[in-house]
TrEMBL record:
Chain ranges passing through the membrane: none
Gene that encodes the chain: hisC
Stated name of the protein: Histidinol-phosphate aminotransferase
Pathway annotation: Amino-acid biosynthesis; L-histidine biosynthesis; L-histidine from 5-phospho-alpha-D-ribose 1-diphosphate: step 7/9
Pfam families recorded: Aminotran_1_2 (PF00155)
Gene3D superfamilies, sorted: Aspartate Aminotransferase, domain 1, Type I PLP-dependent aspartate aminotransferase-like (Major domain)
Catalytic activity of the protein: L-histidinol phosphate + 2-oxoglutarate = 3-(imidazol-4-yl)-2-oxopropyl phosphate + L-glutamate
Native source species: Desulfatibacillum aliphaticivorans
Domain of life, source organism: Bacteria
Domain Aminotransferase class I/classII large: 41-363
Required co-factors: pyridoxal 5'-phosphate
First-level EC class: transferase
Keyword Amino-acid biosynthesis attributed: yes
Length: 376
């Protein structure tokens, strides 16, 4: 048997792929527990809802007939889009559902960018906007944050006639800052109709501030505005992978051309549909996050640690040691957090807000590692 030579990568692989490094996801719990020698694992790394999905979604999952696993789902999430339309007072054709909000990021970039175009976002935000642009061959202009928030002036200054899309994460992951209504309106007015403005509202359901803008309500006024929402965070359906975008009928009509139909499975559609019927899930989750976050903030401050994170179900903490060292030491005690060097915040960790016992365990383990390294 002869073995052929490897493909001619020099010729085959575009330069923007050659220089791109694949994202390495965390290993499954059993593998991590064995590697770090811990008997349990508390995941505080992915901003998941500690309460899980709402009761209505749990029931929908239990009611899902196993037989239907062999049948293709609705290719365009028909019923879910109608429900969303009813909920937000818009048309079903103003929504596109994806395999997580992560997938709809690619839909938008593919729909509007061609060779030589760029997108503008922040340097310290959800990195997927930047990554999808780059591995698709487009420039991502990443503008430094100002006071831990998106810098509107600098973003406008970074844009040129090849800027097709602005990505604003509101509230921002990982810093928890947000643009209030005035700031967002002012930005939209200044962009005009020259570019698409995406407002990623993955964590909007956690925000209780009266001046927080609901981008969904601004869609009729700004036809170039696109909002992202997900069922992964507040609605606790991260494992089923379902999120969506909304925009004006005209913009969504363009984006629809690039979307992969049948990428959203039927179980996810059923659970998401039920989640929209939930009665107390949002208020219960908010109450839990409020209490646990206040506790966490208080404990970090009494340890003399600086924290960032006004809104959202997560808190950034600056440590007097490297974040990757802290990660390994916390892992050996069975606590998983997110290192922030990858988000360009060296020595910071991000902790997802969980139930009180989980928060207490995290604080206890953090105190251990600070003491061990002489920082208490
Ligand atoms: C988690 C997250 C998403 C996407 O989540 P999916 O699970 O892909 O729906 C999008 N944006 C931000 C800022 C997030 O934190």
């Amino acid at each position: 048997m002869t073995t052929c030579a490897l493909p001619d990568f020099d010729r085959l692989v575009p330069p923007h792929i050659k220089c791109f490094e694949a994202y390495v996801p965390s290993k499954p719990d059993d593998v991590l527990m064995q590697y770090y020698g811990c008997s349990s694992l508390l995941r505080l790394n992915n901003n998941e809802n500690p309460l899980g999905p709402p009761g209505e979604s749990r029931q929908a999952i239990l009611d899902f007939p196993p037989n239907k696993a062999s049948v293709y789902p609705s290719g365009d999430a028909y019923h879910l889009r109608r429900k969303l339309a009813e909920r937000f007072g818009m048309g079903p054709d103003q929504f596109l559902v994806g395999n997580g909000a992560n997938e709809v990021i690619a839909f938008v970039i593919k729909a509007f960018c061609q060779e030589g175009d760029n997108i503008v976002t922040a340097d310290k935000t959800f990195a997927v906007y930047e990554w999808v642009a780059q591995f698709s061959g487009f420039e991502a202009r990443t503008v430094p944050l100002k006071d831990y928030g998106f810098n509107d002036e600098a973003m406008l200054a970074a844009a040129d006639e090849r800027t097709k899309i602005f990505f604003v994460c509101n509230p921002n992951n990982p810093t928890g800052t947000y643009w209030d209504r005035n700031k967002l309106l002012n930005f939209l007015n200044r962009v005009g109709n020259k570019s698409i403005v995406v407002v990623d509202e993955a964590y909007c359901e956690f925000v209780e501030k009266p001046d927080f803008p609901d981008a969904m309500e601004l869609l009729s006024q700004y036809p170039n505005l696109v909002t992202f929402r997900t069922f992964s965070k507040m609605f606790g359906l991260a494992s089923l992978r379902i999120g969506y975008l909304a925009g004006s009928p005209e913009v969504v009509d363009i984006i629809r051309r690039t979307c992969v139909v049948y990428s959203v499975n039927a179980l996810a559609q059923a659970a998401a549909l039920a989640a929209l019927e939930s009665k107390h899930h949002i208020e219960n989750t908010r109450a839990l996050v409020r209490e646990a976050k206040e506790y966490l903030n208080h404990e970090m401050n009494s340890l003399g640690l600086f924290t960032v994170g006004e809104e959202g179900c997560y808190l950034m903490v600056r440590l007097p040691m490297s974040d990757s060292l802290a990660y390994r030491k916390l892992m050996s005690q069975g606590v998983m957090i997110r290192t922030m060097t990858g988000f360009r915040f060296p020595n910071f960790i991000r902790v997802s807000v969980g139930e009180m016992p989980a928060m207490q365990r995290f604080v206890h383990c953090l105190k251990n590692i600070l003491r061990e390294s002489g920082h208490d």
